[in-house]
TrEMBL record:
It comes from Bradyrhizobium elkanii. Coiled coil: none annotated. Residues 1-18 form the signal peptide. Residues 79-399 form the Amidohydrolase-related domain. This is Imidazolonepropionase-like amidohydrolase. InterPro entries: Amidohydro-rel, Metal-dep_hydrolase_composite, Metal_Hydrolase, Metallo-dep_Hydrolase. SUPFAM superfamilies: Composite domain of metallo-dependent hydrolases, Metallo-dependent hydrolases. Pfam families: Amidohydro_1. Keywords: Signal.
Amino acid sequence: MIGTWLRVTLFLIGSAVAAVTAQAETIVLRGGTLYASADAEALPDAVIVMTDGIISAVGKSGDIQAPPDARVIDCSGKTIVAGFWNSHVHFTQNVWRNSGAAPAAALTQHMQEMLTRWGFTTVWDLGSDPSDTLPLRKRIAAGEVAGPNILFAGNIFPKGGHPAYIPREVQLPEVATPEEATKWARDWLAMGEDGIKLFTGAFMGDKPVVNMDPAIAKAAVDVAHAQGRPVFAHPQNKVGVETVIQAGVDVLARTTPGEPSYTGDQLARFKAQGTALVPTLSLFTTVVLDPNVTNRLVASTVNQLKQFSENGGTVLFGTDVGFTTLYDTTQEFQLMHRVLSERQVLASMTTNPAGFFKAARKGRVEQGFDADLVVLDGDPLGDVGNFAKVSATIRAGHVIYQKP
């Protein structure tokens, strides 16, 4: 179903890494406990050598010789895992405006607050102004701003579906026909976006949800898949979920809080089509003030995650950060852990996205893989909250965050 877009995504990721690693230093992590992948056994007292943005050696202390000119980071008492992916973020806050010319220090500082101090080395931005964020990606690749590898998805909305939470003065690409969807998808991809995000359902406040016609969604999906790009979707209700399935969308960008569960037929079709899910559970703790309503929303979305995971679907970690200001990832981990094991949570940030997007050199800490790693203060397989206790974040062989 997804065709060649996986190979294109891999090419885009590899190109960004190559730009950064041109000036990479040699870094050695020494003394920590390593989980090389989500299903690997612990390797205590590990040594990882990174050269020119690539992991050049992995083994136990004493078996690996560190180069004499390497920067050595003592990881004693800490845990090392592969770099984290966040598959649902937004660079829409005021700080990202005019990112091509804004002071690098301010951008790096906010990037740290929002993403890098939480271990993210690759992110999918699912809606922002490309005139701001495409230049931001270039500055990160050039080493001017310390940040993650960024992949972008251009948004398409149904006609009359301007969501209540987006200011009315913001002009949105609303489409009424398959032909308009085709044009917008082509234009987004020609601009340099890496994928498409469809609002198959738009929240209108106290008015009914505006859903996207499946034929319109399918037109955009066809364009994206023909160019080898993935499509995400934002459903708001059962109708929006059905459109996701009928149109052949690749990733559900969120769970659907208005629905108590997925139907058996939906789950079967998700599995048959290889659809992935980004739960964004903590998002639903921020949208209403009534704790009873919040608890109901969380219960519904956690149940959907449980159904999806038990059905064998691919779960991708994501928080909708940037739309929310809940930067701390602790709550997301705790909510996911209600139904997923610690290893499944780790997989959602590492091996799952690397496999789904066919990023063949990401998601594991192995020789020849990209030097994207996270050093944690504690063992996350003993306490899921330790995923949020980041000591250092390394992308393409550069330390982009280190705990003071």
